[in-house]
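Recall the central idea of this unit: under ordinary conditions, the amino acid sequence of a chain determines the structure it adopts. In this exercise we apply that idea directly, starting from the sequence alone.
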Amino acid sequence: MNWELFLFLFALGVSFLTAAALNTKREITGTDWSQRRKCGSAAEHILFDELARHDFRMLTQVPVGKRQKVDFFLLDYDIAIEVDSTVYSDPEIQNRMNRKDTSVREKGWEVIRVSAADVRQDVDGVVSKILTAAGWYEEAELTAEHEPVPE
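Accordingly, the structure predicted from this sequence is:
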């Protein structure tokens, strides 16, 4: 193989890989599993896996303001999900969370806050809450399916 052909093929390969890497407008279909590595806690990993089972198109650690990010953003539903630990019961942190919620709502997104403990102990209940917010089914249907109706 001559060097000119080698250099040509090498340059072609580098330009192709560079163009692919710079394609930031790629379409996300289904769950983008590369987003999972950005989850910040074990509870977020659990929730990511459960949302992926429902084939949500989602992003993780999405910026919403100056130094603010939401844990999850459901692309087709404009829903931001925050997984809160017990640390967030502090009043000062509550104020920051309220400001973040305001920033999220200004974008036209709905905010769902769930506790990390609920994700670990009742992930099905958390996912049901998210599915209801996304309009997959009504709360009344969910209650009727899972709880017996007293006579």
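Strands lie at 58-65, 68-74, 79-84, 110-115.
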